[in-house]
């Protein structure tokens, strides 16, 4: 089994699914990419006060470039069915800088120009450092505990966001009962199909949930009548602002860029367990090169830099469809969507609550992956700190308003207010500075703690 899966990773194994099954799996990947991508340019466009036509164009650019980089990664990059797209850590940085710009007397155009410079530099550094083998250093630093902490925090961060979206949480802090009820029903449907449904249906539970949920939403709550604004030029240089030398933003971008490189290690090290194979140094370097190149393109065209989605593991474990051809098919559809303004407008009307509901279920698999990652270590009353401290610190920061960190300098406040980043950094420091083997003794009562 492991050899067959490994062969599929390399593209040398026999095709064991029909073209129609791969097409359905590709459509499922398409919706996975869409729900993970569509909100990013919309939220950043609003934060930067961009005109509607530019936001519409950035949505198309995001679809096109995300589809292209996923195809290239699966074909000649890391060669797994793993999504590469606008990275969440960059999203947090961008929104954080926009929200704090006024308090430090900086215009949004200056922030956008500083981010453009930082994105260009970070993408270039990723290509160079990846080619020099920096990925191997990160692999040595990222022990199973660090990867487990990263996966736990990522799962918590994503599911918190999905839960808020699926219950229709409004600006006043109240939920929409109708939206919440339908979302819970869709989530239960997806979960039941995965747990109790025939395998041929379970593999497409997410796709079924989106289609059924979208139809039910339009029938029960009424169709969304909003339309995407007419898009401006598909490619316009530096729509956020001309590159500048805002050193605080550039320093923060470089730091986040280095942190983003760890996503590649976490994603590929985790997905290796599913495929039963090892990722060669050459594939790491090609993956970094592609992510870095498209991150530099994102700087030119007003998009967030790219990064591997460790959350792809949740989809792979939910569907059990590992073929790269499915990802390539979905990515091709997604890229074509970016070239069709009318289609982009149609799919942008998909209820976000339904997308959040199905992703909430899909990402539950990541929690199991995280537990399996750290389960190999036995814990006592002392060594439990190596997991508990970074995870609970990260969750605590996630539940602290970003405004609480506004007193810190602008180039560190977005980092300090990011629970995922701070938790992973703390775990890295603890794992590489403390000799846990000396503390790996029985607890005072002589009992070990189960992982």
Automatic annotation (TrEMBL):
Localization in the cell: Membrane
Keyword Lipid metabolism: no
Organism the protein comes from: Paenibacillus gyeongsangnamensis
InterPro entries registered for this protein in UniProt: NCS2
Family: Belongs to the nucleobase:cation symporter-2 (NCS2) (TC 2.A.40) family.
Transmembrane intervals: 29-50, 62-82, 88-108, 115-135, 141-163, 175-195, 201-223, 244-268, 288-315, 327-347, 353-371, 406-429
Topology in the lipid bilayer: Multi-pass membrane protein
NCBIfam families for this protein: NCS2_1 (NF037981), PRK11412.1 (NF008502)
Keyword Transport attached: yes
Principal subcellular localisation of the protein: membrane
Protein name (Swiss-Prot/TrEMBL): Uracil/xanthine transporter
Keyword vocabulary terms for this entry: Membrane, Transmembrane, Transmembrane helix, Transport
């Amino acid at each position: 089994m492991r050899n067959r899966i490994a062969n599929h990773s390399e593209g040398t194994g026999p095709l064991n699914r029909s073209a129609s099954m791969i097409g359905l799996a590709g459509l499922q990947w398409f919706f996975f990419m869409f729900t993970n991508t569509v909100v990013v340019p919309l939220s950043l466009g609003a934060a930067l006060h961009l005109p509607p036509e530019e936001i519409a164009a950035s949505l198309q650019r995001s679809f096109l470039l995300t589809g292209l980089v996923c195809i290239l990664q699966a074909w000649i990059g890391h060669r797994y069915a793993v999504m590469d797209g606008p990275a969440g850590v960059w999203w947090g940085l961008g929104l954080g800088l926009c929200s704090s710009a006024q308090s430090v007397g900086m215009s949004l155009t200056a922030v956008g120009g500083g981010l453009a410079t930082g994105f260009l530099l970070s993408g270039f550094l990723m290509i160079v450092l990846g080619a020099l083998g920096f990925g191997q250093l990160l692999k040595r630093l990222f022990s199973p505990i660090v990867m487990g902490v990263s996966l736990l925090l990522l799962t918590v961060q994503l599911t918190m966001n999905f839960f808020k979206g699926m219950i229709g949480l409004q600006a006043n802090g109240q939920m929409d009962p109708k939206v919440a009820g339908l979302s819970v029903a869709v989530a239960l449907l997806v979960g039941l199909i995965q747990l109790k449904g025939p395998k041929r249906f379970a593999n497409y539970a997410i796709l079924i949930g989106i289609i059924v949920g979208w139809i039910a939403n339009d029938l029960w709550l009424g169709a969304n009548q909003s339309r995407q604004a007419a898009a401006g030029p598909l490619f316009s240089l530096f729509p956020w602002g001309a590159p500048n030398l805002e050193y605080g933003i550039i320093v923060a971008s470089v730091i986040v860029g280095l942190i983003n490189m760890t996503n590649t290690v976490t994603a590929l090290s985790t997905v290796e367990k599913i495929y039963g194979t090892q990722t060669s140094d050459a594939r790491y370097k090609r993956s970094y090169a592609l992510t870095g190149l498209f991150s530099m393109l994102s700087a030119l065209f007003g998009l967030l830099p790219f990064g591997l989605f460790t959350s792809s593991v949740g989809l792979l474990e939910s569907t059990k469809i590992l073929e790269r051809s499915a990802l390539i098919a979905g990515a091709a559809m997604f890229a074509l969507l970016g070239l069709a303004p009318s289609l982009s407008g149609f799919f942008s009307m998909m209820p976000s609550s339904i997308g959040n509901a199905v992703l909430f279920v899909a990402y539950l698999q990541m929690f199991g992956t995280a537990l399996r990652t750290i389960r190999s270590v036995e814990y006592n009353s002392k060594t439990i700190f190596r997991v508990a401290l970074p995870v609970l610190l990260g969750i605590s920061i996630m539940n602290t308003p970003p405004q609480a960190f506004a007193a810190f300098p602008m180039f560190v406040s977005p980092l300090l207010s990011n629970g995922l980043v701070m938790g992973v950094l703390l775990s890295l420091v603890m794992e590489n500075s403390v000799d846990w083997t000396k503390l790996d003794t029985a607890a005072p009562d002589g009992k070990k703690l189960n992982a």
